[in-house]
Write a structure and sequence with these properties.
The complex is a heterodimer. Chain A is of the alpha+beta class. Chain A has three helices and nine strands, in the order E-H-E-E-E-E-H-H-E-E-E-E. In chain A, strands 1, 2, 3, 4, 5, 6, 7, 8 and 9 form a nine-stranded mixed beta sheet that branches. In chain A, strand 4 and strand 5 form a beta hairpin. By secondary structure, chain B is of the alpha+beta class. Chain B has one domain. Chain B has two helices and three strands; from the N terminus they run βββαα. Classes of the chains: A alpha+beta, B alpha+beta. Chains A and B meet through strand 5, helix 3, strand 6 and strand 7 of A and helix 1 and helix 2 of B.
Chain lengths: 149, 75
Amino acid sequence: MRTAALPVSADQPPSTDDVREGLARNAISFPDGIPGFEACRRFVLLTSDALAPLQRIESIEGPPAAFLGIDPRLVLETYRCRLSDTDLRALAADGDATLLWFAIISEVDGVLYANLRAPIVINPQRMIGRQVLPDDGLYPIRHALTTKA
Amino acid sequence: MLVFTRRRQEAIRIGDRIEVRVLRVGRDGVRIGITAPPDVPVHREEIYEEIRQANRAAVAPQVDLSALAERLRQP
């Protein structure tokens, strides 16, 4: 399921040309950008053994932006989020599409949090992504993953 | 800013695709209905702003994530 959208390894830096070609081929388009980074319309997913199951979501267009994300179901087993028709349409996803979900990870005063409220959702079949903002958000923007050291 | 006075059930049209209608006027708030095409995102401002700030704060956390990754790999 994941391999479709896990194109570039972050472990071994390949040559610049390889990177450029690889990035272009594996770019995921975010037609609406991401709130706060509206100018970034193309991102890639980067994976590495050291960071798994975390993944990097990195902008390859516009201002530099890199997020760390994790499947929200690895954070909360019971995680459920209903996508609106608007979201499904934007992702060009029909009912059967397998979507990739990422809760963005942030750090405040040494504590790591996952944003379960507004996950990034990617349709790997169409290479389209979007941050969804459910109005009836049941989950917090900051769900603690660690405790203060 | 363009400013209108609208009464209950009166609306404003923005272009030919968006309608903003006043549904109810109360003491503390106004209930508004928005009709917009699916490709036009509509959000409460404070929610959008909150997500925006969370995103900006999230960019490349400067902490060691290997411990967290290690823990998450445990079943």
